[in-house]
Amino acid sequence: MNNVPWFLPVVTSFAMSLLHLVFRRAGRRTRSWFSLAGGAFVLAGCIMLLSAGGFRQPPTLSILFAILISLISFLSLSYSQWYNPESSFVYDSLVFLFLGAMNGVVLAPSFIRMYIFWEIMTVSSFFLVLFNNTAESRKASIKYILMTGTGSILLLFGILGISFMGESLAWKHLFFFSVLAGTGIKAGIVPLHTWLPDAHPAAPTPVSAMLSGVMIKTGIYAFIRFYFFVFKPSWSLGWESILMLIGILTLLGGVFMALVQHDLKRLLAYHSISQVGYIFLGIACGTGMGLAGALYHTINHAVFKSLLFFGAGVLIKATGSRRLEDYGGLAGQLPLTFSMMAIAALAISGVPPFNGFVSKWIIFQALLSKGSGMAVLALAAALLGSVLTLASFVKVLNDSFLGVRRSLIPFAGKERSPFMIFPMLFLGAACFFLGLFPGLVCEKIIAGSLCPGLATIRMASFFGWTAILLFGVIAFLVKKNPGRARYGGTFVGGERLSPDEMAFDGSHFYGTIRDMEPVRSFYRADGEGLLDLYRLAEKGLPAAGSFFKFLGIRWIEALYAGGGRVLNKWVERLKLMQNGLLARYIIWIFAGVILLMEVIRR
Question: N or C: which end of the chain has fewer CB within 10 A?
Fold first, then answer.
């Protein structure tokens, strides 16, 4: 970074935001190519930071996150040209402002400058969540800005407290809690996650991909920067256990909530929370392998979650609905979307040979290396989370593309826009590539610069080549023996049933889970808003205000009554001095004159 300034991608993004405002009268087609060129320039600026010291020099943590942010944002910009063909210059300007702020957060060399960009990122993302201007988006955006604004205050308190950490251990604990809460709200850890399931569905789908794919990663980046470079890992065994517990609760809480959702984007939002749980488990290990797993899963999550949101956007645009019940049998009409979402679903579930498997496997290794009781519990929770994630996406794929229902859409056969096809194919290929060849990222970048001396899982590359061979054999056999599959009607109990009679709703696959005793109380508490800090505050603040109002009135009345009694008592005493007798008044006048002369004399 000696030859290229760190703020080059930031300035480029802000300049593009301003130019969209200046040339607001330009046509939509012109602004589309303008946006794509701007996104490419920002990505090129981040790559220039990488190459400033030579391509062989490993990038730093900041540049790694900046490239990830710029890449996903560029793909989202491309997707936006297809998804939002009627979007105004305001949308384009806000997206570039958002992109520049995110890059500023991860590239800023000081914490104060990072915080300034953090605030710009919060404000710009607030307007993007609000952009559709529906009742849902207005409610979600208010919740988002209040919760993340509170997190910003806590983060600022932690930043300002860095220089005072040496004063006492109690202050260090307080500042660490402040940083954890401030960054945790943005990352979406439980119980600070409740803005996320509302904001993601309310925002335009390309913005949802950016929010889930990269914005919540800025919270992870900030926490890693504080935890590993300021506080140092394992500085407190108590906090290490708490971080592990937070990872477990975030992982399981997110996936259990995703399992029973009917809204596709809300389901994906809860899976973002769950995957952040995996990342926090890797960070909580406090080891080089744990950090490598967390960083690799951060990259992988950005890839497959952005792809899932892009696929969800196609379904929403095709059917006009986000509810799984309104889909069905769309695999033949939307083959590209079905293929890409199937790949992303397998990747997020940790199924080999896709990228999610490799990063989860590294995190599992880090937990096993810790060997503590909490680490073993976290490993069991992580394995359960992967199983439930796969179960959840079986429901999604069945309801959307398979099943016996057939949703007729006028969108069929229109998966032809290069603005949509390129981002989805690129991310789908990345799910394969990062799973088949993890050494390129794990060993060359993460282990090389961020965790030096770490021996990562080289065997994954062996499994990658084995997987390629296996897929090749399967493809050869299928091509050589086509038509072996036999199709028939539905035959149950000696009776053939029509598709209408066998129609079912996969979104109710796991409805009985709500009645299972171990998790029944969890779902009931969520339904009543007991797990939502925002809703609890909404209920608690009016009651607290009424209490303090009542208390204040009582204090004022007591003060007024007590003061009145004291004042009346003194008034009664003063009456003795003014009883209406002229002689007494003359005495008081002479006394006053004498006193005044004495004061003047002195």
Answer: C
Q: Which of 281, 279, 344 is nearest to 307 (CA)?
A: 344
Give the separation between CA 379 and CA 570, rounded to whole angstroms: 76
Q: Are residues 302 and 198 in the same domain?
A: no
* 105 found inside a domain: yes
Q: What is the pLDDT of residue 16?
A: 93
Please give the structure tokens belonging to residue 250: 């975030």
Candidates 116, 94, 279, 326; CA nearest to 203 is 94
Flag the least confident range among 300-304, 319-323, 531-535, 595-599: 595-599
In a domain, residue 489? The reply is: no
Instruction: Establish if 491 belongs to a structural domain.
Output: no
Of 156 and 494, more confident? 156
| pTM assigned to the model | 0.84
On whether residue 106 sits in a domain, the answer given is yes
* Domain coverage including residue 58: 1-231
Average pLDDT, integer, range 61-70: 91
Q: Which residue has the higher pLDDT, 591 or 452?
A: 591
Check whether 524 has a pLDDT greater than 90.
no
- CA dihedral of residues 151, 152, 156, 162 (deg, nearest 10): 50
Q: In whole angstroms, give the CA distance from residue 19 to residue 13.
A: 10
List, as one string, the DSSP characters of 85-121: TT--HHHHHHHHHHHHHHHHHHH-SSHHHHHHHHHHH
User: For 410-552, where are the E strands, in sequence order?
Assistant: 490-492, 495-497
Cα-atom radius of gyration of the chain, to the nearest Å? 31
Q: Cα–Cα–Cα angle for 178, 180, 185, nearest 5°?
A: 100
